[in-house]
Structure formats: structure tokens, C-alpha cells
Write a sequence for this structure.
């Protein structure tokens, strides 16, 4: 069995993030996990049906967004220190 596709992996959720232009503006804070669905759907659209797309939201952070995306394979590493 072969795998021909793209595998994405995360380092978990690091909390609030800002672009360089928005540092210090609390209302502009973003969570990386909130971008998973749109990012993965764009990747899958560009890969097409010829290639698989798998993704690992470490600690299940953002798993809801990934599950609602067009990934072919979803799994999550769970570590003892992971929490909601």
C-alpha cells in the first residue's frame, strides 16, 4: 500500500497570535486552529483527487475544524499534558 499525497502536522495550539501589523491589538488576535478548515480545503482543492491529504492536529486542538474540512485522513497525537 502506497501513500501519495501531503501530510500536515502541527505543534498544538499556542494560544493567541497576531500578525506583525496587529501586535498590541487584542481585537485582532487569532488562533491558528481557527484557520485549519479553510487552509485544508484550499490544499485539498489544489491537490485534487489524485493525491491524499492527511492532517494531525496535535492534542486534538482544532480537531473540529479539521473534521469539517475535506481531509482524507484525520488523526491526532494525544500526549499526557494535552488538555482542552
Amino acid at each position: 500500500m502506497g501513500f501519495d499525497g501531503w501530510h500536515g502536522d502541527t505543534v498544538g495550539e499556542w494560544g493567541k497570535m497576531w500578525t506583525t501589523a496587529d501586535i498590541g491589538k487584542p481585537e485582532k488576535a487569532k488562533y491558528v486552529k481557527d484557520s485549519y478548515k479553510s487552509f485544508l480545503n484550499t490544499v485539498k482543492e489544489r491537490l485534487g483527487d489524485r493525491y491524499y491529504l492527511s492532517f494531525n492536529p496535535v492534542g486534538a486542538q482544532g480537531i473540529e475544524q479539521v473534521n469539517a474540512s475535506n481531509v482524507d485522513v484525520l488523526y491526532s497525537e494525544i500526549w499526557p499534558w494535552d488538555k482542552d
